[in-house]
Amino acid sequence: MKTKGKFTLVALALLSAFALPSAAKDGTYQATTMGRNGDVTVQVTIQNDKIADVKILEWSETHPIADLPAVQLPADMVKYQTSNVDIVSGATLTSFAIRNAVRDCVKQAGLDVKAFTKKAPSKPVLITNVKDETDVLIVGGGGAGLSAAVAAAEKGKSVIVVEKAHFLGGDTCVAGGGYNAADRALEMKQEMTEGQRAMVEKFCRETPRNELHSKLIGMVQKQWEEFKAKNEKGLFDSPEYHALQSWAAGDYVAKLDLVYEMCRMSPATLKTLADMGLKWDDYTTQYIGALWPRSHKASNYKSGVGFIDTYINLIKTKNYPVKYIMQTRATDFIVENGRVVGIKAKGDNGANYELRAKNGVVLATGGFSANVDMRQKYDTIWDKKLGENVKTTNVPAITGDGIVMAEKIGANLIDMGLIQLLSNTDPATGATNHKLGQSTCIFVNKDGKRFVNELGRRDVLSKAALAQEGGVFYVITCESTNWVDKDGRNLYGIKVADLLKQKKVFKGDTIEELAKNAGINAANLKATVEAWQAFCKNPKNDPFGRASCEADTALPAGPYYATIMTPSVHHTMGGVEINTKTQVLDTKGNVIPGLFAAGEVTGGIHGSNRVGANAIPDALNFGRLAGQMAADYQAK
User: pLDDT exceeding 90 applies to what percent of the chain?
Assistant: First the structure.
């Protein structure tokens, strides 16, 4: 019996070793993997040992950056019967998440995983030349470019938008969405503090630096006296005061006429966007580095993508003659008889483009924050320490291409060494999309102590943050003031549960529990929060000089949250020089005929430090003006 038992065990082992694999089972399977922002859940339908369908069930990936991989990868997987399809450049982590989840589903179904991970055929490279002509040609499909496209189309002009990336929106679609504009109707809802009054008085006493500066000071002095004489309630503001603050915040380096033009146009563009369908919150707040509570944000969209979707939807609804050429990089301007008449471009598919404009060309390609070589070459603020180890908030396509193109035809470049870091970014990715509430909530270090006036300039905040242990700090918020929707998603549409899982955010029902979970000194954090709560009830004598506690920065009660932060490269203030008509100037100060520019590709608007929530007004205001100018341009 003993021998027989041994034989039986051996026989079973041999049968197991040589048994055929179990047959695949038809049906639907789900798998969840980590994407860039959080969990990605994918459903795969298996029929007759094949991938019949792939669906994305849930995720928090960034719209519109993740839109193409959500469509292209599933279609390619069904077509080529493999999970190993081409990733979408610029959405690498999202692409890998989809591929890994599908591979998991294939394994669950009992299919041969190796057979379903063979490399899909590469897409053919085209060897072709494409020529096209339009009325207005726009290089760059971000906020400035789309604003220009709408403005030109409104004038009845045909438009071609050339975009390097696989999506429209550029950096605007990943921005926090703050839009600065003097708006007394909303700002009057806030009570003006003694500190804010002192700030206005200080600007009224400034010594004029030039004629326009003198004029603006005089206008603000008159507005302020009228405000006080009427004993008006609420917050004082005006486009002129906005301009004075912005110019001073950039150390008076910027061209004041451009600064004032931006601030003067902001209220009108605010209304124009509302007419286009964007709905504004019924209050203003103060974005990080904004210096005054004049920041507006949309109520019907999350983050800066709202501006992009508003323009795209308007173009579609109005059936405007706007054509997009995507995944195509502009390489050179075409200049004839001294006039810019078009561009040469190269498509990712290998196609060569020659595109011409009957009227004007608008350059709107953004800055160079994602170009490490250019950062290191030009930087004059951060001691040439902006190498690969320093991340950026920008999308990967923002590499300064338009600036290089413009310089080749003689455009003047100004302020190129002035590069801004943003203090409140994700240490892992450089993005800003992990925040929960307003970024001007109190900053604390690992020791649980505040270390800076959170309403200060961005360069000051970043330098103070880098001086903390490990170059990191925490923004403290609470449940009642967080910008989290009913589905538990933050301003960027990311689930708070995913952020907690990734340890980008920590939570505690009490301050002590929060400190324990985040690894912060509990006694100091408790004292810090109690002091802040007292200041919010009576905003005077802040030890760091903070002038106010806005409603969305107060900490009335738990649960409390701590979001880990570190500085990343955010904005390049330098670029091509323009005048107040958005015409590009050459190195001698002359207008380059036919060429207009708007957005971060330009210099001279922000000086040495960009005010928070001024970038979108810059892009959209000057973008709109550039589109109008290009539409009206006629060669002499």
Answer: 93
- Domain boundaries 419-570, corresponding CATH code: 3.90.700.10
Distance CA 421, CA 137 (A): 32
Sheet hosting strand 27-34, strand order edge to edge: 27-34, 39-47, 50-58
CATH number for the region 132-412+573-593+600-620 comes to 3.50.50.60
Query: What φ, ψ does residue 526 adopt, rounded to 5°?
Result: -60, -45
Residues sharing a CB contact under 8 Å with residue 503, sequence separation 6 or more, in sequence order: 564
Residues in the chain: 636
Q: Rounded to an integer, what distance in angstroms lies between the CA atom of residue 53 and that of residue 45?
A: 5
User: CATH number of 24-117: 3.90.1010.20, 3.30.1360.40, 3.40.50.620, 3.40.50.720?
Assistant: 3.90.1010.20
> Taking the domains of the chain in order of start, what are their residue ranges?
24-117, 132-412+573-593+600-620, 419-570
Q: Say how far apart CA 185 and CA 178 lie, in whole Å.
A: 18
pLDDT tens digits for range 347-364: 999 999 999 999 999 999
Instruction: Write down the pLDDT at residue 23.
Output: 62
Active site positions, annotated = 458
Q: 136 or 14: which carries more pLDDT confidence? A: 136
Q: 0.70 cut: is pTM over it?
A: yes
What is each CA distance from 181 to 269, 354, 446, 582, in whole angstroms?
Answer: 9, 39, 36, 20
Q: What is the pLDDT of residue 613?
A: 97
Q: How far apart are CA 293 and CA 491, in angstroms?
A: 19
Nearest to 398 by CA among 69, 171, 143: 171
Cα separation of 478 and 140, whole Å? 39
What is the Cα 322 distance to its own chain's centre?
24
> How is the chain split among helix, strand and coil, in percent rounded to 5?
35, 20, 45
- The two tokens of residue 633 are 């341009």
Integer Cα distance of 54 and 33 in angstroms: 15
Look at the block and give the residue holding tokens 């001294």: 338
- Sequence-distant (≥ 6) Cβ neighbours of residue 618 within 8 angstroms: 262, 598, 599, 600, 605, 606
